Amino acid sequence: MNEGFFEPFRLSLQLAFFTTLILFIIGIPLAYYLSYSTNRFKILLQVILSMPLVLPPSVLGFYLLLLFSPNSFLGKIITSLFDTQLAFSFAGILIGSIIFNFPFMVNSLESGFSNLPSSLREASYTLGKSSFTTLRRILLPNIKPALLTGICLTFAHTIGEFGVILMIGGSIPGKTRVASLAVYDEVQALNLDRAQEYSLYLFLFSFIILTVIYSINKDFFKWKKY
Amino acid sequence: MEKILIQISLKKTIYTSEGSSVLDINLDISNKSLITLFGRSGAGKTTILRMIAGLTKPESGKIIFDDSVWFESATKTNIKPQFRDLGFVFQDYALFPNMTVREHLNYAQSIKDDNYISELMETFGLNSFESKKPQFLSGGQKQKLSLARALARKPKLLLLDEPLSALDNESRINLQEEILKAHRLFSTATILVSHDLDEISRLSDKVYNLENGTLTEGNV
Q1: Do strands B86-89 and B77-78 pair parallel, antiparallel, or not at all (unpaired)?
Q2: Containing structural domain, residue B175
Q3: How does DSSP classify residue B2?
Q4: Is residue B172 one of the residues assigned to a domain?
Q5: Which residues in chain B have Cβ-Cβ distances shorter than 8 Å to A137?
Q6: Cβ pair B27, B196 in contact under 8 A
Q7: Is ipTM over 0.90?
Q8: Residue range A140-167, pLDDT digits in tens
Q9: CATH code (residue B201)
Q10: How many domains are contained in chain A?
């Protein structure tokens, strides 16, 4: 194994870390809104956020590639502001990854909020506490398993992403070639041993993450019986 | 003459398994009084408490509390639950699973007053459980904590939603005494909802019967 072997893993972990962090921050207010809002149009937001679950990753990747292209409206703005482009860059695959993983984070958090009895929130309100204090002191501490599930699922799913990253990022070594793409490249180059190694690492990683998620939820349901 | 603390005049359509019906409520409650709303399940008793607390919006009417308007459909006034000076004891206790007994009382206070918390813990016999979380308390202990939490911010009005229904006979008698003790000690006006004419109803200043959406004053 040479030094370059772990480069795709480093990129995968970096991508997964930032995707999870950013989605966690924007996922909480979004999931809160979706759980408690009575606005009849919220269903539209739910549909849009869930699209990545059913849309082929190549389709999402293709649209984002068009959007990120230096000739598009957004592309021109990005180029003039930051003197860079989103297509075939780490920032580009990060944005794609965030959009693609929305449902994994938001749905987990939303089901956490929705499963809490509404009387907890109402009791806090009748004690004079604001919505924000209630969220911070009552709701979030009582949906810890949902928070952990959202974080683990998003992280693991980003590691396993393929289509969107290939479409937006190409497979540029050191820049956008993440571990899942490295498997594909090595198979194409008939380096089957290398592909085998990458695959084994990815398999073990996914296995561990899912074991963690199931263990957390099992403990949670034991706790919830009271 | 006793001062009127809260004047309630509300209308709301409620939907139950037997179809829809209209609640048309007129109720004046004087300072420091204890009243019981009695009626069968599904009659709308909980809805009345929820409308007073601001958790359910009435269709029309008004609620005047101590000269301030909590709700008035004509002027589209609807004060948030956070700004209504009341304590609410929920039927399912609504205790916070992440907090210990003492943390519940600390959380409930807007101005920290350790002496008052100690007094509440003493009154409701919660001292030996102070560092326990709700999942390790019995039904009766949970109900006492729920009552102590509602009183922790020293509200002028206390709303109790079927506080005795989930308890066994011994705990019921015990908690009835606690409610009366709290009512006397803290002089809080109290509205208690019940589908069963318990001992507490006989100890109330007034009992109202909720039938066909309206309240009629009953015999104590």
Answers
A1: unpaired
A2: 30-51+81-218
A3: P
A4: yes
A5: 107
A6: no
A7: yes
A8: 999 998 999 999 999 999 999 999 999 9
A9: 3.40.50.300
A10: 1
